[in-house]
Amino acid sequence: MGINEFMHENKLGLSAISIVAGLPLTIISLLSFVYSEGDTGMIQFSYDLVGNWAYWLILPALLFLVVGSYYLYDFYKKLKEFRELFNIESKAKFIKNVDRIEELAWRLHPKYERLVLEKKKKYKIR
After folding, report:
1. Buried b vs exposed e over 78-99: b needs ≥16 C-beta within 10 Å?
2. What is the pLDDT of residues 16-56, one digit of tens each?
3. Do the Cβ atoms of 85 and 96 come closer than 8 Å?
4. Which residues contact 107 (CB under 8 A, 6 or more apart)?
5. What is the Cα 114 distance to its own chain's centre?
6. Residue 70 has pLDDT above 90, yes or no
7. How much is the mean pLDDT over the chain?
8. According to the model, what pLDDT value does residue 47 have?
């Protein structure tokens, strides 16, 4: 299994991990930016944790957060469209939309490709 195949099959989990990692890192970096002498609590903790490295930490943290959020949003948007098109019971409408359904299944996950193949067998479509 190559890296592209791994990322394709695990896109949802990787985007969730990216958000879970990016959000606290972003918050800690932002809190350490506002540190001044005499601060206590969470601001002091975040500054003690990252110190002057906050400038270097904010870039990958924001990158993780933005990219993970985008892929998660994109996945669910495509999944919603796939379900709407896939659950059509009319064979004629299914055939009309089969190209878009196959593209969405290919972009989502291999299990959706299998669902499309099963439905094409049901309707006897090549």
Report:
1. bbeebeebbeeeeeeebeebbe
2. 999 999 999 999 998 888 876 677 788 888 888 888 888 89
3. no
4. 78
5. 21
6. yes
7. 91
8. 83
Which amino acid, 117? L
Give the separation between CA 43 and CA 101, rounded to whole angstroms.
Answer: 49
More confident residue, 3 or 1: 3
Determine the residue type at 36.
S
pTM to 2 decimal places = 0.82
User: Secondary structure of 96-120 in the HEC alphabet?
Assistant: HCHHHHHHHHHHHCHHHHHHHHHHH
Residue written as tokens 């193949």? Answer: 117
The upper half-sphere exposure of residue 117, i.e. CA atoms within 13 Å in the direction of its Cβ, equals 6
Amino acid identity, position 34: V
